[in-house]
Structures are given as C-alpha cells and as structure tokens.
Amino acid sequence: MLRSLALALALAAPTLGVVRFHCSQLVVERIDPLVEPERNPSSHVHQIVGGDSFNSSMYPATHDLVEDSTCTTCQFSEDFSNYWTAVLYFRAQNGSYKRVPQLGNNQFETANGGLTIYYMQDAIYDQQQLSSVKSFQPGFRMFVGNVNARTIEQAANFRQLTYVCMDTWTMRAPEVMQFPNRPCKEGIMTAVRFPTCWDGKNLDSPDHMSHMSYPETGTFESGGPCPATHPVRTAQVMYEVVWNTKIFNDLWPEDGSNPFVWSFGDATGYGTHGDYVFGWKDDALQRILDTPCIFNCPASAGKVQSVQAMNSCSKPTIVDEDIDGWLDELPGGYQADYGSAPL
C-alpha cells in the first residue's frame, strides 16, 4: 500500500515534501522531561526515540539537543529531536501484565522497534502537496492527547489519535479511537497526529498544548484555515507505532474483551497521547520541507544513516525497575482502568 502510494505521489507534479522516516528505539523507561521534568522516575513508562541527549530535565535554556547528542536513532542523522509515547501492556486473565514489544514498521522491518515519523504539508493522500509550511524552531515542544480520557466524548477533543487492527502487514484502515476488540493478525498500529497551527510566538505553553491549535474550520486534511490566534501553519507531525500484539493472540479473554492497557492504566484506548521536542540541526528540516520529494527525500541532501547505525544508538536506563517481566501492577503502581465500562 505504501509502495503504491509512493509511486503515485512521485508521478504527481508539482510536489513539496511528504517526509516519512523511521527512528529505532532509544530507551524504554519512566522518564518524561516535558510533562514531568526532573521527576525520576516519572509516573508511567514511555518508549523514546531520537537523540541520545534525552534525559529527565531538558530545559531549552540549558539543553541543546543537537550539541548535547552524540547520536540519533532516526534515519535522518541531523534529526536529534525526541519523540515518545506511552507503552502498551497485555493484561492476562489472572491480572498480571506483560509489556508489548514494538516492531519495525513497513519498509523498516529490521529496525529495533521504535516509531515511524511523518512531516506533511498536506494530507498524505494529496498528490500535489502545495502548501508552504514552517519548520519548528529550536526550543519548540508540544504534547497531544488526554491521559485521563476514558470515553469517546473526552477523547473527541483531540483529532486523529487512532488504532488500526492490522490483518495484513500494510493495512492502515479502518482507524478507530479505542482499542480493537478482537485479535489482530499482524498487530495493532497506533497513529498520533499533532495540531498544525502555531501562535507564532511561544515555543511552549504551560500545558504544552495551548500554543498550538487545530484549524479554525475543517481539518488539516481538508485544508482548513488556521485561526487568527494561531496563524502560522506548520507541518503535520504524525507517529506510527506498530505493537507486536499478535504474540498474545492465543491468550485473548474468552469473552472477547480487550486485554491491552496503556502504561498509565488506560484500558479503553481513549487516553493515548504523544510528546515531541524539536531538535533538527540548523535548517535541515526546512530544507526537506521545501524540497519536492517523497518519503526519504534524497533531493534535499538530507543526511541519511543506515538502519544498523540507527539501531546502534541507544541509552542506558536510569530507572532501576522491572518493566518487562510478568508484573502484578504496572510500573508506577497503576492497574487497568476501564472507566465506566465493565471488566
């Protein structure tokens, strides 16, 4: 599917960039410098990719992701940004938990887990990609989602945080907002899409969201205009994470209820969220965004490293705890929270 999409986009003219690349896993642990800076450990487990300067207190005034990193797990070797999400666990019928590993995505099967990143001017299916968008600036960071959401009404405040039950390796639809309710042959893919309108002033905000906005009307995909309060249109940042849930397919509850839970206790799926801290070197991202290119964008002269090099970049854990064994509770003391839904 992605191969045919890439061909269709490549034949279209004129185009600007649809950037797709992978980042291998950097570390999995309870650290969150955006929402819980200096708290070690943070409240729940995350899986992090990107530059190896990631730590618990990445204040923009003192932390330079480019200068402080020695390597990156991302395919573009000038991208020292950090991208992260919560971690998925399987809940067995006896109440114990086991971490669900990630898989390298389509076309990146040999990557050490991690996630796939997109930067888009327009909707991925738009063959023209005519919009001009601004790169983010050093010090920029953002968050999307609501960790406390347990209903579709609460989750509806955030657009396009979705799940795909993958019956084939390239399956990318239909997308739903809650955990799939059946075993998925090839795993579950989560997609995290960030807002695309910036206020043009603040690199961050107290809730890490208010400096960004969704379009005033319509959506990013429909070309909706940005509101006057947030007039600067940015690229849409999207994550894809493929979870190897298929290794648990034979252990699904007999009643068919969902057995998966996020590391912060959400067993509905509505609380999914993502964090982003910008860290591209110089104008590398803007050059890519300004270049007619598809996915890995060789025409931009962006420096690309091999999957082997991506996998070789890693970071030792700081928090000394078991996150991978069969656990009686989720790290941080969480138990599965189904909201108002019955067990």
List keywords for this structure.
single chain; 343 residues; mainly beta; 5-stranded antiparallel β-sheet; globular; disordered N terminus
What does this structure look like?
The structure is a single chain. This protein has 343 residues and is mostly beta strands. The protein has helices at residues 2-11, 65-68, 152-155, 284-289, 307-312, and strands at 18-23, 25-29, 46-50, 82-86, 88-91, 97-99, 102-103, 115-120, 141-145, 161-165, 188-193, 197-198, 212-213, 232-233, 236-243, 260-262, 273-277, 294-295. A hairpin with a 5-residue loop joins strand 5 and strand 6 (97-99). The longest helix is centred in the N-terminal third of the chain and has 10 residues, at 2-11. The protein is globular. The relative contact order is 0.25.
Question: What is this structure's SSE topology?
Answer:
Blueprint: H1 2-11, E1 18-23, E2 25-29, E3 46-50, H2 65-68, E4 82-86, E5 88-91, E6 97-99, E7 102-103, E8 115-120, E9 141-145, H3 152-155, E10 161-165, E11 188-193, E12 197-198, E13 212-213, E14 232-233, E15 236-243, E16 260-262, E17 273-277, H4 284-289, E18 294-295, H5 307-312
Parallel strand pairs: 1-18
Antiparallel strand pairs: 1-8, 2-3, 3-4, 4-17, 5-6, 5-16, 7-15, 8-15, 9-17, 10-11, 11-15, 12-13, 12-14
